[in-house]
Every structure is written in C-alpha cells, then in structure tokens.
# Entry
Amino acid sequence: MDSLQCLHPTYQPRVTDHMEEIIDMIKQIIDNGFAYDIEGDVFFAVDKFPNYGQLSGQKLENTRAGERVAVDTRKRNPADFALWKAAKPDEPSWKSPWGDGRPGWHIECSAMSAHYLTSKFDIHGGGSDLAFPHHENEIAQSAAARQESHVSYWMHNGHVTNNNEKMSKSLGNFFTIRQVTERYHPLALRYFLMSAHYRSPLNYTVLQLESASDAIFYIYQTLHDCEEALSLFQDGSQEGVGLNVKKVGITADAQKCINKLREEFESKMSDDLSTSHILIGAFQEALKFINSSLSMIKKKQQKQQQLSLIQSLTEIEKEAKLILKILGLLPPCTYVEVLQQLKDKALKRAGLTEQDVLSFIEERAMARKNKDFSRSDQIRADLTAKGIALMDVGKETVWRPCVPVEAEQDAPSVVAEQKQNPLPAASS
# Structure
C-alpha cells in the first residue's frame, strides 16, 4: 500500500478490542424495541424498521431468505439478521447478557464506526456487493440504536475483474499487488486503477497495464524535461534571466491552458470523483503545451518573449504537479529516478538488460552505416515488440519503454508469455 502511495488510516480497529461497544449497541437496540433474543441468539426485527431497504432499493417482501444459508425457523421474519450468536463448541466466544457468544457480522461495523466517527459521519465506503444486505443492515441497526444516526455519502466501488469475472479467492483468479508490481511500477498500477470511475468494474488486462505504464512515463518524462530546462533559467545562469523572470506575466495561451486545467479538474472531481477523465483532456493539453514550449524556448527570440515563456512553463508545471499530488501520482523520488525505475520494469518484462539494448542500438547503428536498412528496421521492430522503443535524436539513438506491439495486436501471445511468469494475466 505504501508503494501505491496510499495514505495510512488513522485507526485500524479490531473487533476483538471492541466487544464492550458492540454489546452496548445491541443492548440499546433491544431496549428501543428493534431486537429480540432467543436461546442466546439476538436477532434484529426488520419488521420494526419501516425504512429497511432505503439504501439498496430492496423491498422486504422481495428478499428471499435461505439462498445463502438455511433459514432459522426461530426468527419472527426470515429476513431478521443476527446481532449476537450463541457460542458453539470450539469457537471463540465472549460473555454477554445473553450468554457466551460472538457478534454478528453487521453489528461490528456499526459499533466501531460510531465509536471512532460518532453516530453521524460523512462517508462510508465498501464494495458494490455490500450494499445489500451488509450496509442495509448497518443503517437499520445504527438508526435503531441511535435515532440521530446518519451517513451523508455511501461510496460503493466496483471490482477489478479478470476476464470480466470478479477476482476472488474461491475462483482462484486473483493476484496480489506484490505480484503485479514485480513487473509493473506501482504508480502504473495506481494510474490503471484510476482509469475507470470507482463505482465501475475494471477489467484487468496486460494491455491496460502496459498502456498505464506508457502514460505515466510520458507524464514524468515531460515534467523532467520541463524541470531540467527551467533550472537553467531559475538559477540565473542564463544571462541574468532568473532575476527578471518573475516580473513578467505569462502568455495568454498559458493562462487559458491553466484555467482549463483547473476548471476540468474541479469539475470532474466534484462529479463523484470522476478520476477517469482527469488525466486526459486538459491535462494532456497541458503536457503538449509544455513540450511545444520547450521547443520554442531553444529558439532565438526577444528577451521579453522568452521570459514570458519561462514563467508560463513554471506556472503550468506547478499546476500539473498539484493535480498529480492530489491524485497520489507525484513520485516520492526525482523524475530521473522514477523514469529509470519504469525502464527497469520494462526491461524485466522484455527479458533484457540495459546492456542488451545498448548492444542492439550499436548493431543497428552499424547496419545503418552499412546501408543494411532491412537489418536496422528488423532490430527496431523486434525491440518494439518487446516494449522497447528506439528513438533517433540528432545523431544519437535513445530508448524508452512503449506498449509492446504484440500487446496491441496479438493478445493471446501475451497471455501465453505471461503464463510462463509468476503474474497471471487475463486475455486482452
């Protein structure tokens, strides 16, 4: 979770440390007339709670008990759910007013939420499959214990799927973050997870992760180039430019770019955290503006124009970094370091070392010198198929990761290759 740059929760409570709060809440529910005990078991009486089903839209008469577990004939209504379960042989148990036993699944969450957040709090999260019955039961028992109980926003996330099936231990079609990040950078995985709206299901494919990795490489490479170019001016090494740059305003195009970037970010984040649209559109336009401005800055132009362009780049870079920071996509290290990490992962996926790539670059240069363009093109194509792109910059050839050609055109071969490695992959 640290490698994905997820913030640590303030509290990570354990049910076993909160038995007193759980038992107290069950007592309140019974005292308020919403529950009953039978032979050491305590059940919530759904008939007593007229708003049951308000979250999921489920009507009580339409719920079908007995589909997952056998119906307990002692219940007054088959939909009644357990708040406390009498102890069974060889099971952990705790003492309570109803005898030794353990809490039901739903009451644990309500009691701990109320303990740390009070009975009124803003956001309750969970998987989409928990809306009914788990969260529905939480609402009912919390309100039954304390009438003022309220959650402002329920945020249900979709699931990452494999071949359009929900990943689960029972199906054996899941893999861990550690397995994925053996081959892909953690920030590429984070980018991939943000590429769909959090409420939507997200289907894992090799191509999706390759594309995410390619996207963040482009982002960090652009920001690195910008940072490197600006450093020449910000330290005043370029004819005293650093002393004057802040006295000049940014260009009209830069201001328009910044305004659009801010407006789109605020609009999408305000629309139920629509992260899937944030790193495209205005953000991509900002990156293109940076790249085109970097080309212009190298050309001879009037000093005033150059100063304005430098200030424009400074402000746009600042805005782009702010967005990445909020999204948890700003690297914890330098751009040079994260770019090298991305290259190392690409080499690992390609089954090559950096020396291998440099040898191919040398061989290609020799082939071009000998006018053996067929061999030159073949070397380039073979490396591209493995996710290594060669780029001729002046008289020099450099390389960067790319989406492998087979990942784009021949998904089954990617899957076959993946099966020989620790990370299972879905068909793309």
